[in-house]
Design a protein that fits this description.
about 270 residues, alpha/beta, Alpha-Beta Plaits, 3 domains, six-stranded parallel β-sheet, 9 helices, 8 strands, binds iron/sulfur cluster
């Protein structure tokens, strides 16, 4: 799956600061809070490791850290997809951005790819006070557009974007959003996202009454941030050995084992 967005979105930003401006005696709280190990003991943000979670932004006592948007330009979408040939495309969108979504979709369609799914990732972020009913109405609008283009949707309910690695409490946000939107959502599989972590499935099972009931209420779980935090040390180790994690015969099985620990309870439902 390739992820895109139809406007500003925390999933598509990087943190940046000029290390030359940092006082020499700064205890580097930015480094301590970064879950992606993107800020080392010296120097700037390592852009390829930063995934834009934003945790470093408020902790700099000197206000030196900025966020920089990384939105793909319209003309880049079709060539990128034609090169990567993904099976699915995910578009991060927001309430109030139906028009921008439609434009992004046109760019995706221009790639000529035959996609298995078009995932729509959306939560309650956006205009202040967005309610689940508004979100569902917007999803219905996206659904009409997808259907017109012959695309099969996958709805990703973004409970609390990129927060799964903060702690156990974030799992509640994704489940609350699912409970509110599920009865009024358009057709298509619903997936938990945004805030999901290792607590999500036990909590979901308890709330739903059984594993089977949980499985009937959601089609899957997106373990974005928490999976990244889990695997990041292995990715870095592989980099230090001069290759990708995927190509490391020792580390790759370990990475799969860690990832399996997250998804196995779901697969066993
Ligand atoms: S804390 Fe988040 S936004 Fe800041 S550098 Fe690390 S990954 Fe990037
Ligand atoms: S917290 Fe601010 S001043 Fe300190 S190292 Fe990070 S960016 Fe520089």
């Amino acid at each position: 799956m390739v992820s895109l967005s139809d406007g500003d979105d925390p999933h598509f930003r990087k943190a940046w600061f000029d290390p030359l401006c940092c006082p020499a005696d700064c205890p580097r709280p930015c480094q301590q809070v970064c879950p992606a190990l993107a800020i080392a003991a010296t120097g700037a943000v390592q852009s390829d490791r930063c995934y834009g979670c934003g945790r470093c932004l408020p902790v700099c006592p000197h206000g030196l850290i900025e966020e920089q948007g990384q939105i793909l330009s319209a003309s880049m979408v079709a060539p990128l997809l034609a090169r990567l040939r993904p099976e699915a495309v995910e578009i991060h969108t927001r309430v109030g951005r139906g028009e921008a979504f439609a434009k992004r979709l046109l760019q995706v369609e221009a790639s000529g790819l035959s996609l298995r799914r078009l995932a729509v990732s959306c939560g309650l972020e956006g205009p202040a006070g967005v309610r689940p009913l508004q979100l569902a109405e917007e999803l219905w609008g996206r659904f009409a557009r997808l259907r017109a283009g012959g695309l099969r949707p996958l709805w990703q309910l973004d409970g609390r974007a990129m927060s799964g690695d903060i702690g156990q409490g974030t799992a509640h946000a994704a489940l609350r959003l699912l409970a509110a939107v599920r009865p009024i959502a358009p057709p298509g599989p619903l997936q938990l996202a945004g805030g999901t972590n290792a607590s999500t499935l036990p909590l979901f099972r308890r709330q739903a009454g059984s594993a089977l009931a949980a499985r009937s209420q959601a089609a899957g779980v997106a373990f974005g941030g928490v999976a990244r935090a889990l695997l990041q040390p292995l990715i870095l180790q592989a980099e230090q050995r001069g290759h990708r994690l995927l190509d490391d015969r020792l580390l790759w099985p370990r990475a799969l084992e860690l990832a399996r620990g997250l998804v196995a309870p779901w697969l066993a439902c």
